[in-house]
Amino acid sequence: MTVDLPTPRVGPLQDAAPKPMRLVLNWGRRYSLWVFNFGLACCAIEFIAASMARHDFIRLGVIPFAPGPRQADLMVVSGTVTDKMAPAVRRLYDQMPEPKYVISFGACSNSGGPYWDSYAVTKGVDQLIPVDVYVPGCPPRPEALLHGILRLQDKIAAEQLSTRSYADRRRLAGAVTRPAVQEPGAGATRVPVAPVAPREARS
Amino acid sequence: MAGSKKRGRSLVPGLMKGMATTARTMTRPAHTQQYPDVKPDLPPRSRGVIALLAENCTSCMLCARECPDWCIYIDSHKETIPAGPEGGRDRQQNVLDRFAIDFSLCMYCGICIEVCPFDALFWSPEFEYAELDIRDLLHEKDRLGEWMPTVPPPPALTAGAPEATEVAAANKPARTPRTRTGPAAAGGPDAAATAASPPARPPERPPAADDGTAP
């Protein structure tokens, strides 16, 4: 038997919530990120390294023991997202309760990486789900993931409560369009190339 | 009964062994690195980010063409340097307009740094440039130049290693014309030039003489 429950939202009164309450809520959120590792390739090894004793991101409040996506706040997509895997990524993201955050870890999940011209690879996980922090690297160092987590925590700290869904407020990456390649010479002073003088004139 | 006795006997030394391990570990400090507070000591030649020394770049496009990901964007134009003194002629020079590396695509192979003939690209160990927007991962020329102060100095040469060929060639003393001992010692500048000129090439052997198979 299935029951259709509405997506939980922060109540309408939260808009008028005083600042201390916002601070406390954001403080609670940023230091209890139950993480769910969507490890798809070699970058997942670096994620595991970041979770182990040497780097140990539990120090930052990131807890890697979420039983599943339904108990997780943060999803770390580490590795090559293939078009075959894409529905699963989207499905598991949809199962996460709000507020939910996504870190894209490594070149493959940022934009396809070395496989950007492959027929089978999704050109970045941000085509499927909204991504909060992009960690560059191939693979990134474990410390780079820690830095990405710090960036995310700063972002959460600056968050405003709103009745709207967090995921709705974020831009989907399909909407992220890179600006067109700059026209050569734009912004630079251009000196017209002098026409080549005929041979007799030069000698 | 006998089984439980046996288990009890094996339990005690096992427990002792485990407690000994625990006690040993307790005396050692944790090896956790306190990253945000303490900078990690990265291994030498760490590949964090690619720095650009724009003054050295001649926009020859070798890096952009060798990049396996095609993640380097270069725009340039030619400028004419007018002729200086009398009898000179106008020179043309490439001017770099745009040099961008897309770090969301880069696979950190370092081929661009290897192929750069003018030492304009360098590895920097910095890794703290995660972004909230993927478009910020496209580092333009000025941002790539900002990484330049973080580039470590090149590692010291191995002790006792042979000198690099270009260094040896540069340190070699200039050849002095062999004018002291010849009969042309007093012959003037013409004779000195002939003495310093390389010897004539030895007569070439016919190619068939090398191997005995040719008829």
Automatic annotation (TrEMBL), chain B:
Q: How does it assemble?
A: NDH-1 is composed of 14 different subunits. Subunits NuoA, H, J, K, L, M, N constitute the membrane sector of the complex.
What protein family does this chain belong to?
A: Belongs to the complex I 23 kDa subunit family.
PROSITE patterns per the record? 4FE4S_FER_1 (PS00198), 4FE4S_FER_2 (PS51379)
Q: Which residues bind [4Fe-4S] cluster 2?
A: C67, C106, C109, C112
Instruction: Relate the protein's function as given in its record.
Output: NDH-1 shuttles electrons from NADH, via FMN and iron-sulfur (Fe-S) centers, to quinones in the respiratory chain. The immediate electron acceptor for the enzyme in this species is believed to be ubiquinone. Couples the redox reaction to proton translocation (for every two electrons transferred, four hydrogen ions are translocated across the cytoplasmic membrane), and thus conserves the redox energy in a proton gradient.
What is the protein's species of origin?
Luteipulveratus flavus
Cofactor annotation remark: Binds 2 [4Fe-4S] clusters per subunit.
By what name is this protein known?
NADH-quinone oxidoreductase subunit I
